[in-house]
Backbone:
């Protein structure tokens, strides 16, 4: 291996920036390249479906900056924007760019993120069918929503998950009528308990959003190349000024997979963000982490990108750094803040604390009597406490959580 | 443009010119100030942009909202009387010279 060849990071989002900066903190003094496809220096994506969209998508992209080009240059991180890597030849340790250029690497990191899942029905490529990934998408969605509001057309959102619901809330704020089509019987059903889904359904309905559940979209129709209608399997038709599709994301592991790295709906990494190739690491949405019990876990969050990014940098320096912090995530819809700590997957009991209708409550998830996760709606203190309880493995019993008079904060203080 | 001085946990000071209307957090992120994480991007969901506002600026700032106070009750580093979340501080011409210090840890 040529020790002069640079470390190259493919993907300049949250995970890519973290890998680059952590490499410097770990003492890497060699050449470092950060490659991004978009024209913008690295920026923070979460506001794109939240405040930035609800403010009309007309904000200055600089306000989203994660790191400016100057700050990266100061750390001798060479930023190449509007550059797309199309292939990796691991035997030659060489990358190929879309413009045909080739580049040798000493070590490599993938931080390619995820791509919105495409709606697999006829008409899905009509104009006015929109997906959210980057700044340009958020701007396009905001513009389409404002046209709908001006022309009295409805915004149809396909998918009642985080992105769909945040876009619905933004569209209401921008004055458009909104219908959300959800394929399952309730909102955000893969990640939250029914009590959370119901609370958000009430909040959205109070803001005038219409919901259709168990809606199987079979076709989008339009005229002049523009979408005008969404048709579901039961024959219903929904008029649409624009359609926003939020049916989940798929890890972008195409180049890694074609290069022969072990992938399974994501680049497979261990707890230290190492891939099946010792000179290649990966971090963030593009990965699938192998858990000790053999299962593969995918976390799509800023925290995961940051923590896996730190691990990936350590791995490229030949060190082990395991990511153990409690996973957390959040969503903003209108004035309701959802904060999630831990992973509720596989829970068998839920206990709530607080006021379900206000709403200001938390749902505590238990699995075999053990607290595994807490979802908080407008209960900031509960969330911050839950992170600490789960981090320190100080776990209240189901009876303690169910007893409204029991002081959970006291539990943490006792053991502090 | 108003100047804002950021003091890193190790005492190094970084002074930036920040456009009026921009958050104290956002400018620090773009410039790569090290003592800040701001994982949620200013949505007040994470409390990882915690800072200590230096004298005499604390009194010049609008008081924290109830939500910010709740978040401040759970920051990773020591909470002090001058603790604020930098994502909630908007730079204004009259804040020219504002100085904030970042704590040892954010998460």
Residues:
């Amino acid at each position: 291996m040529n020790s002069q060849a640079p470390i190259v990071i493919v993907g300049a989002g949250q995970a890519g920036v973290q890998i680059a900066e952590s490499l410097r903190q770990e003492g890497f003094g060699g050449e470092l390249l950060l490659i991004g496809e978009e024209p913008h220096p690295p920026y923070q994506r979460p506001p794109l479906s939240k405040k930035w969209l609800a403010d009309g998508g007309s904000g200055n992209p600089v306000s989203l900056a994660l790191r400016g080009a100057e700050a990266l240059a100061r750390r001798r991180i060479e930023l190449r924007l509007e550059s797309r890597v199309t292939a990796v030849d691991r035997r030659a340790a060489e990358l190929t760019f879309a413009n045909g250029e080739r580049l040798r690497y000493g070590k490599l990191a993938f931080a390619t993120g995820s791509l919105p899942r495409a709606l697999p029905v006829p008409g899905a490529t009509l104009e006015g069918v929109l997906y959210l990934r980057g700044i340009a998408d958020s701007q396009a969605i905001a513009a389409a929503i404002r046209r709908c509001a001006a022309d009295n057309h409805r915004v149809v959102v396909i998918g009642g998950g985080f992105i769909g619901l945040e876009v619905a809330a933004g569209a209401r704020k921008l004055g458009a009528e909104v219908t959300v089509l959800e394929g399952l019987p309730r909102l955000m059903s893969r990640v939250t308990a029914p009590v959370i889904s119901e609370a958000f359904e009430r909040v959205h309905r109070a803001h005038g959003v219409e919901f259709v559940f168990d809606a199987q979209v079979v076709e989008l129709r339009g005229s002049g190349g523009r979408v005008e209608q969404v048709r579901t399997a039961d024959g219903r038709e929904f008029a649409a000024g624009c359609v926003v599709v939020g049916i989940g994301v798929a890890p972008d592991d195409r180049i890694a997979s074609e290069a022969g790295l072990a992938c399974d709906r994501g680049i497979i990494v261990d707890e230290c963000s190492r891939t099946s190739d010792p000179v290649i690491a990966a971090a963030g949405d593009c990965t699938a982490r192998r858990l000790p019990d053999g299962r593969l876990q995918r976390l799509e969050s800023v925290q995961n990108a940051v923590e896996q990014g730190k691990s990936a940098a350590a791995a490229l320096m030949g060190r082990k750094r395991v990511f153990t912090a409690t996973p957390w995530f959040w969503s903003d819809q209108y004035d309701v803040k959802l904060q999630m700590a831990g992973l509720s997957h596989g829970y068998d009991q839920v206990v709530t604390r607080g006021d379900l209708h206000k709403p200001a409550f938390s749902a505590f998830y238990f699995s075999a009597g053990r607290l595994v996760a807490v979802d908080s709606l407008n209960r900031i203190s509960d969330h911050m406490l839950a992170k600490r309880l789960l981090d320190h493995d100080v776990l209240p019993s189901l009876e303690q959580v169910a007893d409204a008079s029991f002081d959970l904060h006291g539990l943490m203080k006792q053991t502090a | 443009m108003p100047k804002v001085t950021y003091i890193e946990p190790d005492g190094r000071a970084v002074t930036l010119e920040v456009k009026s209307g921009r958050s104290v957090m956002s400018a620090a992120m773009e410039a790569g100030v090290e003592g800040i994480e701001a994982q949620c991007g200013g949505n007040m969901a994470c409390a990882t942009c915690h800072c200590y506002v230096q004298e005499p600026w604390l009194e010049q700032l609008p008081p924290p909202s109830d939500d910010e106070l709740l978040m401040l009750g759970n920051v990773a580093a020591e909470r002090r009387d001058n603790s604020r979340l930098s994502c909630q501080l908007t730079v204004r011409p009259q804040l020219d010279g504002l100085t904030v210090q970042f704590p040892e840890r954010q998460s």
